[in-house]
Design a protein that fits this description.
By secondary structure, the chain is mainly alpha-helical. Helices cover 41% and strands 0% of the residues. α1 packs across α2.
């Protein structure tokens, strides 16, 4: 995580949608990811949180909230690719640009 990355749990728009859906922000984001077909592996060792995470994944959010979240493009890659490009890499993928394509204004491939 970079210091410049947004903190989704603190995003006012996400908080507003979570409140509208009568959910916590983590619950909303877990269900949003599941509802859009993304594999979600939430981290928790607390039994009550594990139960909440499972319940979140199983309870759909409204189409209106789903679409609002879908439209919230932050132009952010949480997995930037640095892991696969250590210094001295000698395969076909040597730079982040090799992974993502054309560089954008911050030097990240899109």
């Amino acid at each position: 995580r970079d210091d410049s990355d947004p903190v989704l749990m603190e995003d006012p728009e996400i908080q507003r949608i979570a409140q509208k859906e009568n959910r916590s922000v983590p619950s909303l984001l877990i269900r949003f990811a599941v509802q859009r077909g993304t594999v979600v592996i939430p981290k928790s060792v607390t039994p009550s949180r594990i139960e909440e995470n499972l319940a979140s994944a199983l309870a759909p959010i409204s189409n209106e909230s789903f679409n609002a979240l879908l439209m919230m493009d932050r132009n952010l890659r949480l997995l930037k690719g640095n892991l696969w490009c250590p210094e001295g890499t000698c395969g076909p993928i040597k730079t982040i640009s090799d992974i993502w394509g054309v560089e954008d204004e911050v030097g990240m491939k899109s």
